[in-house]
Amino acid sequence: MKVLAIIQCWDNQDQVRGFTVGWMEKLAEKVDQLIILTLEQRQPSTRPNIIIYSLGKENYQGLWRRIYYLYQWHRQVRKIIKDYSPQIIFTHMTPIYSVLAYPYAASKRIPIITWFLHPRTHFIVKLAHWLSAKVVSATPDSYPYKKDKLAALGHGIDTDLFRPGGQSDNPPMILSVGRISRVKSYETLLRAAQGLQVTIIGNPITDDDREYFSEIKKYQAEFLPALPRKELVGWYHKCFLHVNPTSPGSGDKVNLEAMACGRPALMATSAFADTLSGFEDKLIFRYQDEKDLADKVSYWLSLSAAEREKIGNVLRDRVVKNHSLDNLMSGLVNLFYENTLSG
């Protein structure tokens, strides 16, 4: 099986998309050849059957860069299809890539598989849906359009990397990982956890993010810059509880990463119902309700370390079963073969 995967960046240090490198390396274990087309590349490939074509964002800047990227994108897609004859085109989180690739794919009868996960839809998502042989998302609720072509395969957590290990800090520390942004509502956590040690790991990206960061720095907490995913594991081990105060509808992977490390994860969303079943009243709090959050933090503090570990092990087992990277990639490759054969 030869696959063309079109992604946004190849950079395992990127705080938002760094996981994509691990995804592609795991996918490469299950196919004969994986050709990557990416907007930018910050590291070389670690596997001999991965070939990377970068549009050069890491080197090229200027007023005309978007025109340059578009020209290069079409040029590279044509070249890859001509030189490698991929059997499947897989696009990740950028449905416009599926739309742009469709004329080339259709001329060679190459099926397109589109991954998309977001609470909102728009015209490009709908068009990509119609042009794709299948669409893929983590759960039925994480895909915002019709379900007729949908395959729900889990969130793809690297449960070999994110695994239990080590004791939590004493005094107990609450961890929150994610971009510094208003939608995260960190002030809810910081008010609810007054008097407790709180560590927030993430960067502001936009001007509004930076303004928001200056507003929340008045609270007592430790703020650390975004870290590579491998370095996050130790921080999950240090905390006794992970809290993600982001708005409902969010499917932040950090919740699953924390649970894969055996740590309870408090959140303001029901997006992970399959994993939280039986613990919803202890792990889901009302969005921006600091009293409700404080009550739930107090509950987890009242448990012994052994009791928290027991529950943490249950949560990890569910993440492995429903959202592991290996299961996702196995399901994705099966989908590739099904659509290749049916085409």
Shape: globular
How big a fraction of the residues is strand? Answer: 15-25%
Helicity range of the residues? 40-55%
Query: What is the CATH superfamily of the largest domain?
Result: Glycogen Phosphorylase B
Secondary-structure element order, N to C: EHEEHEHEHEEEHEHEHEHEHHHHH
Ends: how far apart? 14 Å
Q: Which consecutive residue ranges, at least 5 long each, have pLDDT under 50? A: none
CATH topology of the largest domain: Rossmann fold
CATH C-level label of the largest domain: Alpha Beta
The major sheet is characterized as: 7 strands, parallel
- Summed over residues and divided by their number, the pLDDT gives a mean of 93
Number of domains: 2
Question: Which class best fits the helix and strand makeup?
Answer: alpha/beta
CATH architecture of the largest domain: 3-Layer(aba) Sandwich
Count of alpha and pi helical runs:
13
Radius of gyration using CA atoms only: 21 Å
What's the total count of β strands?
Answer: 12
Strand order of the largest sheet: 3-2-1-4-5-6-7
